[in-house]
Design a protein that fits this description.
With 206 residues, this protein is α+β, with helices and mostly antiparallel strands. The protein folds into 2 domains: 76 residues, Glutaredoxin; 111 residues, Glutathione S-transferase Yfyf (Class Pi), Chain A, domain 2, CATH 1.20.1050.10. It contains 8 helices and 4 strands. It has a 4-stranded mixed sheet with strand order 2-1-3-4, with helices on one face. Helix 1 runs parallel beside helix 3, helix 4 packs parallel to helix 6 and helix 5 packs across helix 7. The radius of gyration is 17 Å and the shape is globular. The chain binds glutathione (GSH). Glutathione (GSH) binds next to helix 1.
Length: 206
């Protein structure tokens, strides 16, 4: 039984939930973070000194950092599938996971927080517009990559699709203008066929 600490509307928790869903693992998710709190207890701090979500426990193994959680679960339970065994192919999955955190998330976070988690009277719409403008060519990089393959690491779905798939759901549901990205849209249609994506990621933004 995998224990997962984190509220269901966190993008970083959604990566983990989607992964356990794909793998068909037994899990217990404990609401934590945001209005649920629970991150400031000594017990939580011993598991995750950052006091962030998600944190997972699998027997004696405790993991934090969402991409590390996805990698752990994929390697432990999905080797040869979610976790490509060939190092070159795995590097394809890995690089788009890191790209999501380092290249995509800074501007996606600005737009998300300003338009979804900030009351209308306090929104900085100039910052939203600037971040949305920067995001368009960033997503176009992944669109170009997907023009030649069905999924980010090749013909098959892998862990590499999970962080960017969570981010794309947010992106298409934000109240901003977006460019036409046909290869991303075709990939998104493939993701939407996956029950675990529909259950754990395709939730209303909140
Ligand atoms: N880089 C970390 C970021 C973790 C993080 O910032 N999580 C947010 C939620 S998405 C959090 O814990 N916020 C505090 C809270 O929800 O109370 C990861 O990917 O796991």
């Amino acid at each position: 039984m995998i224990k997962i600490w984190g509220r269901a509307n966190s993008i970083n928790v959604q990566k983990v939930m989607w992964t356990v869903g794909e793998l068909g693992l037994d899990f217990e998710r404990i609401d934590a973070g945001g209005a649920f709190g629970g991150l400031d207890t000594p017990e939580y701090g011993r598991m995750n000194p950052n006091r962030k979500i998600p944190t997972i426990r699998d027997g004696e193994v405790v993991v934090w950092e969402s991409n590390a959680c996805v990698r752990y679960l994929a390697a432990q339970y999905g080797a040869g599938w979610l976790w490509p065994l060939d190092p070159g192919q795995r590097s394809q999955a890995d690089r788009w996971m890191d790209w999501m955190l380092t290249t995509l998330m800074p501007d996606l976070t600005i737009v998300f927080w300003q338009t979804i988690r900030t009351p209308p009277e306090r929104r900085d719409m100039a910052a939203v517009h600037e971040a949305a403008t920067r995001l368009a060519p960033i997503w176009a990089i992944l669109d170009g990559h997907l023009s030649e393959r069905a999924f980010v690491a090749g013909a098959e779905f892998t862990m590499g699709d999970i962080p960017v798939g969570c981010a794309y759901w947010r992106y298409v549901n934000l109240p901003i203008e977006r460019p036409q990205l046909p290869h991303l849209e075709a990939w998104f249609a493939r993701l939407k066929e996956r029950p675990a994506y529909r259950t754990h990621v395709m939730l209303p933004l909140s």
